[in-house]
Amino acid sequence: MPSVDDILEHIGEFHFFQKQTFFLLALFSAAFTPIYVGIVFLGFIPNHRCWSPGVAELSQRCGWSLAEELNYTMPGLGAADKAFLQQCMEYEVDWNQSTLSCMDPLSSLPDNRSHLPLAPCQHGWVYDTPGSSIVTEFNLVCANSWMLDLFQSAVNVGFFIGAVGIGYLADRFGRKICFLITILINASSGVLMAISPNYTWMLLFRLIQGLVSKAGWLISYILITEFVGLSYRRTVGIFYQVSFTIGLLVLAGVAYAIPHWRWLQLAVTLPNFCFLLYYWCIPESPRWLISQNKTKKAMRIIKHIAKKNGKSMPASLQSLRADEEAVEKLNPSFLDLVRTPQIRKHTLILMYNWFTSSVLYQGLIMHMGLAGGNIYLDFFYSALVEFPAAFIIIFTIDRIGRRYPWAVANMAAGVACLASVFIPDDLQWLKVTIACLGRMGITMAFEMVCLVSAELYPTFIRNLGVLVCSSMCDIGGILTPFLVYRLTDVWLELPLVVFAVVGLVAGGLVLLLPETKGKALPETIEDAETMQRPRKYKENMIYLQVKKPDIPLN
């Protein structure tokens, strides 16, 4: 029986249909960025201080400038922990009493300024920003700062649950229907989040977005890799992720133009409704249909692809039948990911590498922090670092393969983290340079794990396998803030040591995976189990054919 890859060689591996589909799905990939990293702008924390109606009235009466008001009334000047004091505490002083003078009013009190009692902010905060964020609207600072952490954790919890659940549904009921449902739910919950009346509703709708958005992004990735031929699969997979990076750059510009979080949320959410038009543009995956023994539907789609590509179907490829294994096992199971030895090994290694990629990717950003005061430029520059990573992959994996560049990328990120520990603080430029190299390395590793995950699983559990393994990325996203902020309380560089160990181990484990360069996507469990032995099997077959004795002619 000819495989889908055999058919694509005749009707076009990356012709008009595949290019059109890739462009449409790349737009969808770019639209995922506001959910994955939108917290940078939606949850922006500006400089803030306690607001006091008494201070405001006294300042107006005395005609103080802002600098004078802060100098006379703000606690913590000269204190070691002045940031916390200035942002979260205020003097327990009755600012309305008539004995206070306009020239250093606290000096007229019997207690020295340093001995005045302090209390948490009682009347809210003043934020030094022309725009707004969920932080400024719902006062997610000081004692309520954990609510911002919960907001981001809710997204990652949604990623985790949705990746597993929707991954199973996509392998059970089809890529296309699950893809469209995730688009509808994501767009609707995004709009509802923008008009949420309070923090609780906003958190709920953000959780729903997390449940469907990442699963939809990965289903889209699976679809495009199953539509293209073998020789174009890795390039398409990498550029699909590059479109995500382009989305990062666009998000920075949109956030700069719209500094108010509700309008920003609407601006990045409403375009998602346009993706529902893909119902008429993108068909179901023929590979999935064949794995489900729906060969007639698969053949209709293959003929549609051939027509769009301006190709004709050879007579020898006009009929298809499903593999025996696909007929016997139509429904994917989580046990299929660990039932056989090779697939079990692939699953465990891929899960660890997804976890590692998330921890290092997010952890390096958190540890390095913002280099300057312009959040938009900082975000833009950090996104630019990801482009060289994609092009390095493109120019190496076809010549070297998948395993070695992937392993080197993980190890380079680990070594960069370890090197940063020993660089003195006065060489800040070197620290930033090494951090960028580490960011580039882990970006390469992130793109490689997404590419190779789709190449190691057989068709009927491919979507489930990728989504289950990638769910470890979400667990990493939940744990990373605790790794960074809690370990720095012990030693500032301790998170980098942990990242180094995690990255180096990930690089070593990658070398245990089979090389997928130049190999067709496995269609059955047997194909996946024998991925490390096909070359030897083929050579034995050729050897036996060469050694067959000649038959004498009479």
TrEMBL record:
Belongs to the major facilitator (TC 2.A.1) superfamily. Organic cation transporter (TC 2.A.1.19) family. GO terms for biological process: cellular detoxification; monoatomic ion transport. GO terms for cellular component: apical plasma membrane; basolateral plasma membrane. It is found in: Apical cell membrane; Basal cell membrane; Basolateral cell membrane. Residues 22-518 form the Major facilitator superfamily (MFS) profile domain. The chain crosses the membrane at residues 21-45, 150-170, 177-195, 201-224, 236-257, 263-282, 349-373, 379-397, 404-423, 429-452, 464-484, 490-513. CDD domains: MFS_SLC22A1_2_3 (cd17379). It catalyses: putrescine(out) = putrescine(in); thiamine(in) = thiamine(out); guanidine(out) = guanidine(in); serotonin(out) = serotonin(in). InterPro entries: MFS_dom, MFS_sugar_transport-like, MFS_trans_sf, Orgcat_transp/SVOP, Sugar_transporter_CS. It is a multi-pass membrane protein. GO terms for molecular function: organic cation transmembrane transporter activity; toxin transmembrane transporter activity; xenobiotic transmembrane transporter activity. PANTHER family: SOLUTE CARRIER FAMILY 22 MEMBER. The keyword Glycoprotein applies. Coiled coil: none annotated. It comes from Heterocephalus glaber (Naked mole rat). This is Solute carrier family 22 member 2 isoform X1. Keywords: Cell membrane, Glycoprotein, Ion transport, Membrane, Transmembrane, Transmembrane helix, Transport.
